[in-house]
Amino acid sequence: FYSMGIMTEDNSGGLRFLLMGIFALFPFLQKLSKVDMIPGTVSKFFRRVVKETIYKREVEGFVRHDMINLLLEARKGVTAVEESDLAAPSEFSAVEESKSHHGKPKLELTDEDITAQAFIFFVGGFETTSSAITFMSYELATNPDVQKKLQAEADDTLSECDGKLSYHALQRMKYLDMVVSETLRKWPPGYQLDRRCVKDYVVEPEKVHEKTFTIERGSKVIIPVMGIHYDPQYFPIPNRFDPERFSDENKMKIQPYSYLPFGSGPRNCIASRFALL
Fold first, then answer.
1. Partners of 79 in the beta sheet?
2. Which of 107, 124, 160, 181 can bridge 93 by disulfide, Cβ–Cβ 3.0-4.6 Å?
3. Phi-psi region of 61 (alpha: psi -120 to 50; beta: other; left: phi over 0)
4. CA 80, 83, 89, 90 torsion-angle sign
5. Is residue 161 annotated as involved in ligand binding?
6. Which residues bind heme (predicted)?
């Protein structure tokens, strides 16, 4: 899996990197050119692994409570989302799952669909999580006061749970969540987001010299995550690493949609909780 991840994320080839940029700006060109951006070896590997996994689950009756199982259950139309599962996450940096799927009919998921979801779940968190850990380590090394405070919290937590760290114990580590949240502000996994406008939207002028602007239906809208995270209007002294921005007292002062490490809305990062863990 590690080798496949490295192969997928390898953008050292100049042509492939150039094509990625072109297809990002003009998605229709990829369909016309029929160029596969995923190496054939990687595609075959994931198709084989998922096919074997599905066979073992459906034919042999083997059950594991994981993402593949959820997708297979959804295909059978028996998956029920509990309201407790949709509760707001305790981590500030996580995103709340969308409730927009409620009341929708049984999903027609093919083996290819399940393979695609498994692939994006794996690849989407391959390089981003390692980068986040690297940046957090750097910030802790250059901010010893933050490091000492976090170490003290970790020691206290380990002492309280007899050295056996659990998910629930991690949930109680508020300063750790503050440090992670600030790391994702300074070093977001994605520097921009893109969305497709579904209806004409009029942007009213905020200043005297500005004019009314209409975002037309079908237009691609780019949200500059890095630019917003470093805007002093939302985060004073943005270049300073300051976990206190996300304390219980301060995090409620953060303007909605100014903090977007995992996006927001129905198309947010499906694996934000998994990535944080």
1. none
2. 181
3. left
4. negative
5. no
6. 269
* Per-residue pLDDT tens digits for 63-118: 787 778 877 887 776 655 544 454 545 566 665 555 444 445 555 778 888 888 88
Angle, helix 67-76 to helix 40-58, in steps of 10 degrees: 60
Give the Å distances, CA to CA, from 245 to 94, 191, 198, 237.
Answer: 16, 20, 34, 11
Contact 52, 206 (CB under 8 A): no
Give how far Cα 177 sits from Cα of 147, 153, 184, 276, Å.
Answer: 13, 11, 11, 9
List, in order of start, the domains of the chain with CATH numbers.
38-190+224-276 (1.10.630.10)
Span 4-43, pLDDT tens digits: 766 666 655 566 667 777 877 777 787 777 777 777 788 8
CA angle 7, 51, 54 (to 5 degrees): 130
Instruction: Indicate the helix (H) or strand (E) that contains 221.
Output: strand 220-223
pLDDT of residue 11: 55
Give buried/exposed letters for 142-173 (b at 16+ CB in 10 A, else e).
Answer: ebeebeeebeebeeebeeeeeeeeeeeebeeb
CA distance 238 to 231: 7
d(CA 10, CA 1): 14
